[in-house]
Write a structure and sequence with these properties.
The complex is a heterodimer of chains A (123) and B (338). Chain A has 123 residues and is mainly α. Helices cover 66% and strands 11% of the residues of chain A. In chain A, strands 1-3-2 form a three-stranded antiparallel β-sheet. Chain B has helices spanning 3-14, 20-39, 45-55, 58-63, 78-106, 113-140, 168-187, 206-210, 212-232, 237-267, 273-278, 285-337, and strands spanning 193-195, 202-204. In chain B, strands 1-2 form a two-stranded antiparallel ribbon. Classes of the chains: A mainly alpha (123), B mainly alpha (338).
Chain lengths: 123, 338
């Protein structure tokens, strides 16, 4: 019973840690896919196709936040079967994307180096 | 109304007012996209329900649209809120004590510890309520205080243990004084009273004798703390709280003594202090007793006020030390949030 509780709390902790790790990455991922305008559901599918699953409940508020920060622009498009809100990266967002991508490459490089020694320790 | 309409309506209830209808429209369009993608044009209620479950509870979905989180009083306002609370509580308590003092001596109103507590129970929560309402409004309008404008200078950090060192002289004086009084009232309780002229009539103070044991316990406890502090050399949280406790105990006893003198004076049909002083020229033997009891009451009242002020100073010291510690961590927190 006790070991089960520990396991549960550890998996909760693991979930929380994963979410924290992903939070920053999602901004970079969304910006990278919005060089062409897309609506929310299409963006989710395009991210999923490339291997990044993101819940709609996470993605839509994120898009709103990025827009309020000036990194995205959006407008309603009524031409399709129903009105959809289309998002596209702003000039400021493009600059931010470039900078963040640079940061990301440095971070992964450093972390690869750091993790290289720990690869077999968990076995 | 379809299940989807009901869901959107429920999410809308918890959404921020700003952009509410826009967010609702976008959610609707995304839900329909999802449904069509999975089940074609005509999704059943069951299929809709399945997709809605994936989206999550309406309250949770709406909460993710509140960019700063949902707070009654958020982390940015909280340090100021706490500071204002302490200032207002101190001001309310100060004003009440002043009012009691004036009531007691100018109007000769009766003094009751229970009444004191009752009015505190009424006034402190009321003041707190108003502060909370004010800060809730500030939070609602997203007011942002500018706390971190001054450049930060590590050399200005507070010294460690400032104000924690004991004042040896004060402690020794207090110890000697307490010992003398304790010895006097324990060894010669029959001498507790006053005389008008050397060799004149002696009037025992029956009110003090009534509370003798309580007074002895208070003096003894203070002496034990003084000796311990002389030995330890520094205050810490526990000893400060013990000192606060002893101060509260002294205040209660002094309250009883003032009240006891009041009762005595009332039962001897004495007027207020100023009336007695005015008639002092034509005083008889019985009159001197009344003047003496007035003097005792005044002395105990002054002691009551002084002890109360000391209590507030001690509370203020504890809070100031705490705020100095917390301010740094609160600012760290604000920076992290940004």
């Amino acid at each position: 019973m006790r070991s089960m509780m520990i396991k549960n709390s550890q998996s909760e902790l693991y979930l929380k840690l994963t979410q924290e790790l992903r939070r920053g990455i999602l901004v970079l991922a969304a910006l990278s896919q919005l060089t062409e305008e897309k609506y929310g559901y299409a963006l989710m599918n395009s991210l999923a196709e490339k291997g990044l699953d993101i819940e709609q409940g996470t993605l839509y508020p994120l898009l709103r936040r990025l827009e309020s920060q000036g990194l995205l622009q959006s407008e309603w498009n009524v031409e399709g079967s129903r009105p959809r809100r289309y998002y596209v990266i702003s000039p400021e967002g493009t600059q931010t994307l470039q900078d963040l991508a640079g940061e990301w490459r440095e971070i992964t490089e450093v972390l690869e180096r750091l993790l290289a020694g720990t690869a077999n320790q968990g076995e | 109304m379809t299940l989807l309409d009901r869901y959107i309506q429920e999410v809308g209830r918890h959404l921020p007012r700003k952009n509410r209808s826009d967010i609702k429209a976008e959610l609707r369009s995304s839900f329909v996209d999802t449904l069509e993608d999975r089940f074609g044009q005509e999704a059943t209620e069951e299929q809709t329900s399945e997709v809605l479950k994936e989206f999550g509870q309406p309250r949770d979905v709406a909460a993710s649209y509140h960019p700063q989180g949902q707070y009654l009083i958020g982390p940015t306002l909280y340090p100021i809120f706490r500071m204002v609370v302490w200032i207002v509580i101190a001001a309310v308590l100060g004003a009440q004590i002043l009012a009691w003092g004036i009531g007691l001596f100018v109007d000769g109103e009766a003094f009751s510890v229970l009444e004191m507590l009752a009015s505190l129970v009424a006034s402190v929560p009321a003041s707190l309520g108003w502060i909370i309402i004010t800060f809730m409004i500030l939070q609602y309008f997203d007011a942002k205080p500018h706390l971190e404008n001054e450049p930060w200078d590590p050399t200005k950090l507070p010294e460690i243990n400032t104000g924690q060192d004991i004042k040896r002289g004060e402690l020794i004086v207090s110890l000697v004084f307490s010992t003398l009084i304790l010895a006097l009232i324990t060894l010669f309780p029959q001498w507790v009273g006053f005389i008008t002229t050397p060799g004149g009539v002696f009037y025992p103070n029956l009110v003090i004798l009534e509370y003798l044991v309580l007074i002895q316990v208070s003096l003894l406890a203070h002496m034990v703390l003084d000796v311990y502090m002389l030995w330890k050399g520094q205050w810490n949280m526990v000893t400060r709280i013990i000192k606060l406790g002893l101060s509260v105990y002294s205040i209660v006893i002094l309250g009883f003594l003032v009240q006891g003198h009041n009762a005595w004076l009332t039962s001897h049909s004495a007027g207020g202090l100023f009336e007695v002083l005015e008639s002092i020229s034509g005083i008889s033997d019985g009159g001197w007793e009344i003047v003496g009891m007035h003097a005792f009451r005044l002395a105990f009242f002054v002691a009551l006020v002084v002890t109360t002020i000391e209590l507030f100073v001690d509370i203020f010291r504890i809070i100031r030390n705490k705020i100095q510690e917390d301010n740094i961590s609160a600012k760290d927190f604000v920076l992290k949030v940004e």
